[in-house]
Amino acid sequence: MNQSLLPLKPKQHPVTSIPKFTTELPFFYLTKRKDLLTQAIDFEGIDPEQRPIRWKVIPNPSIGAPGIEAHEVWVRLIKPALDAERERMAGKLPNLVPLGSVRECLRTLGWSIGGWESRRLMKCIRQIGSAWCEADFWMPTSEKDEEGRALYRHIKGEFSRISIYAIGSKHVTEEELKDGKISFDFDLEDTVYLLLHPHEVEMQKNQNQRPIDNEYLFSVSPASRRWYELLAPKIFGVVENRKGQQEGGYCEILYSWYIKRHHTLKRHMERYRVVEQMNDLIKDHRIFGYVEKVDYRAIKEPGQPVDYIIRYYPGEGAKRSINRIRSYRPRKKKPAQRDLPLSKVKQLTLPPSGVIHATDLEIEALVARLTNNPPEGFGVSEMKARELIKANRRGVEEQIAAYPYRDMGKTKKNAAGWIIAAIEGNYTLPVTYLEEREKKRLTVEVEVQKETAEKCPFCDPGGWRRILTPEYPTGVVMRCSHDPAKEAKF
């Protein structure tokens, strides 16, 4: 049975962009259990380059942990303000960010206007700022190297993410931040200023962002919100890939993977407890039709505790949520797609038609490789395949070529979802594939040199030629022009 969503209020943001990498690092306590609100978060993992990820959050006992309301303040108010300031500054994010007046902030949150609500807002911001973070990880950025791979930035240190810098013309002191109390009176028209730590600035401005549907997010329970933050990108990929296909798609996660990122949940070993726990977690998602069906399968690796593969099948609610995001955030044309002024069109010179034809054939071959059904292809939708090729053609070619060298096991059943994640995440290529590629490159290089030497009219059959020089009257013997660095004198 489907249920209606809670409608947005006039000033609320319908869509918020959240960072792709650091969203998986737990920070907010989306629970009402008091015993969990005092526990520190201690997260350890491995990034795509097999480097360790260490992340720890220690809440302030006097101010409180960043909980359900603090999470709402972050998603509805603070994150959109950071994005707006970065857009205004043409991609640069300053340390000092204005949120707007207290009255504007309350309207953006959809809260009532008043002194009690304003102090509730300040408490939530202080809870976020007073949580002490310890970080040591390499963060993938939106920047790419020459080969199209994501560049990484090292984030290491101990810091608080944000702090209230000033309210109106009055600055907030260190003592007031620690005590969690603001001694001076402020007006609802006073502007609130946040001070960002340099690490927070780095994390916010250099990560890829993914949109979330606020109307749906805040219609489900707090625990279900964390599930949506972590699983929405995977569900989006499934919905996109199964367009025009008869078979229903799905995405898979490991139970242990999810529990580490939803830190207020306890990990269970018995299957019935896992099923009961996770089914209760997605109860709202099934009511709203976001998840149509879920399956559980136990796996046991030697020397490891039992784990479970959870398979989610998205429903009609997921399609509606994705369509809402698109209606509020239509895809922007890239600079190359925009109409050019007539004065500049005449200056453009097109490459020879033969070059365009060859390039088109190569692109169509890649599209066919991605869209064909397994085992010949991966079953990706044509629209998604062209989007991947346009964004990172080199990455598409490498991941397709390296796929046979990977030990995929049973995950080949969802080849489309895996290859998309590998291309967008720039997965590390297998060592066996890199070694084989290098062998082929050397073989081709040797053959080219041999063929060049045999066809050169200035060389003898051995690939050498004689050049007379004043220094050596008898001449200098050296390689042909394809390898001029090597020479021999006689």
Distance between the termini: 91 Å
- Quaternary organisation of the protein chains: single chain
Q: How much β-strand is present in the residues?
A: 15-25%
Q: Largest sheet, order of strands side by side?
A: 2-3-5-6
Number of alpha- plus pi-helical segments: 17
**What's the average pLDDT?**
82
Low-confidence region ranges: 333-351, 353-358, 466-479, 481-490
Total beta strands: 16
Given helix and strand content, the structural type is alpha+beta
Helix content: 40-55%
What does the overall shape look like? globular
Task: Give the key terms.
17 helices; alpha+beta; disordered C terminus; globular; 4-stranded antiparallel sheet
Give a description of the structure.
It contains 17 helices and 16 strands. The protein has 490 residues and is of the alpha+beta class. The strands form 5 sheets. Strands 2-3-5-6 form a 4-stranded antiparallel sheet. Helix 13 (353-371) crosses helix 14 (382-391), helix 14 (382-391) packs across helix 15 and helix 15 (393-402) packs across helix 16. The longest helix has 25 residues, at 431-455. Residues 333-351, 353-358, 466-479 and 481-490 have low confidence and may be disordered.
